[in-house]
Amino acid sequence: MPVALSNRTLDQLPPEVRVPRYDRSTLKPGIVHIGLGNFHRAHQAWYLHRLMDEGLAQDWAIIGAGVRPADAQQRERLLEQDCLTTLIELDPSGKSAEVTGSMIGFVPVAEGNAPLVAHMSDAHIRIVALTVTEGGYYRDADGGFDADHADIRHDAETPDAPRTAFGAMVAALRQRRDAGTGPFTCLSCDNLQGNGDILRATVVGLARLSDPELADWIDANASFPNSMVDCIVPATGPSELALAREFGIDDKAPVTHENFRQWVIEDAFCAGRPDWDKVGATFTDDVHAFEAMKIRMLNGGHQIIANPGEILGIETISGCMAHEGIRAFFRKIEAEEIAPHVAAVPGRTPEEYLDLIDRRFSNPEIRDTTRRVAFDGSSRHPGFLLPTIREALKANTPVEGFALSQALWARMCAGTREDGSTIEPNDPIWGQLNAAALEARERPAAWLEQRGIYGDLGSHSAFADAFARWLTDLYAEGTEATLARYAG
């Protein structure tokens, strides 16, 4: 029978399962992490866990946190098993399991976020990190801080009972300033180019709405390192729960992941940091090139293949890569339209990176669903693809594949697959997207008129004309024929 995961049962797990080599009872907190999804537990928490295995960073343990109702459910699951997580690596050559223990607590999730503010105000907390998704940073269509969002207005008007993670950070930094504790490092671990700069703009911008002096203090004293994170981590469902049981572990929230990780971090920490570089992370003064390569090629590539995959009813990303037309589309747009706008990084050219992500996306052991990758396109397309489109237009380089990628997104948002089945809503603004997509079937410009997403891109004829042509072809000839025409 599978063993219920807990501190008490670690020595009862099968010998092939790697377990923590450190005494978890002696760990002390140093990090609050907001957003305890699968990615954080397979990535940042793993690096810290492996550092602890080396006898280091014992005073940097993680306290989990969240600000959404769903976070309360995750809290219950993790506390029930002493905040341990089973990580299952899905290597085509074989699977392996490891239990990580770098997280030691989870803040109660409460309206007004008083428990979260209190934990972040504690002088022992020196880093507050976040994985709140690309769309969670309250940015406007131009990429700036959206001071008019209802959540931001609420936190500016009631700073002692904030609704957002950023409002809670501002409240905690206010308490630390007043107590003479000093600031903490604010560390974004989301897939955004310049994520530290974006986090600074959000936190400082929010503080300025209610307390300009505090905003100046945060801007001058807190640090916001940029970072690049990379690991493919599918959502957890019945098959992942069953896989953990096959390893002899009853884990209510196991995580599967690929056999690849990368973490590149700007070395700018105002209150100290763990030595993550001793277990494979990279500290650098120039994260931008790594960020650009990963976000434009990998994250952008995910959107490129997920939309046609959804239209054709292909369930997984590896299944999309097994489709000859989708893979040819992916390879051509990456090589001819994205890579020319990506610089090499130490040890890897864009061409080598394309081959790497081709292999990673094609891993049949990773059951990363097309639906998960296609989720929240209204944040992911502006973050991962549209900046490169703008550069291509400015440089007068090809945009045909880019235009087709956007036509495929519009076709997907029409809400039906080519076999007539329904594509269920899959975006926070699905209603808007669906209405624009349906109108665009007869008048393609309607899709690009969503200025909150595209800004002025619809006014560039080279892009808009190609988009209209591709969308018309998708409806007239179908996805496979259209992809084949582009790939040649």
TrEMBL record:
<dbReference type="InterPro" id="IPR013328">
    <property type="entry name" value="6PGD_dom2"/>
</dbReference>
<dbReference type="InterPro" id="IPR050988">
    <property type="entry name" value="Mannitol_DH/Oxidoreductase"/>
</dbReference>
<protein>
    <submittedName>
        <fullName>Mannitol dehydrogenase family protein</fullName>
        <ecNumber>1.1.1.-</ecNumber>
    </submittedName>
</protein>
<dbReference type="InterPro" id="IPR036291">
    <property type="entry name" value="NAD(P)-bd_dom_sf"/>
</dbReference>
<keyword id="KW-0560">Oxidoreductase</keyword>
<dbReference type="InterPro" id="IPR013131">
    <property type="entry name" value="Mannitol_DH_N"/>
</dbReference>
<dbReference type="InterPro" id="IPR008927">
    <property type="entry name" value="6-PGluconate_DH-like_C_sf"/>
</dbReference>
<dbReference type="InterPro" id="IPR000669">
    <property type="entry name" value="Mannitol_DH"/>
</dbReference>
<feature type="domain" description="Mannitol dehydrogenase N-terminal">
    <location>
        <begin position="30"/>
        <end position="278"/>
    </location>
</feature>
<dbReference type="Pfam" id="PF01232">
    <property type="entry name" value="Mannitol_dh"/>
</dbReference>
<dbReference type="InterPro" id="IPR013118">
    <property type="entry name" value="Mannitol_DH_C"/>
</dbReference>
<feature type="domain" description="Mannitol dehydrogenase C-terminal">
    <location>
        <begin position="286"/>
        <end position="471"/>
    </location>
</feature>
<dbReference type="Pfam" id="PF08125">
    <property type="entry name" value="Mannitol_dh_C"/>
</dbReference>
<dbReference type="GO" id="GO:0016491">
    <property type="term" value="F:oxidoreductase activity"/>
</dbReference>
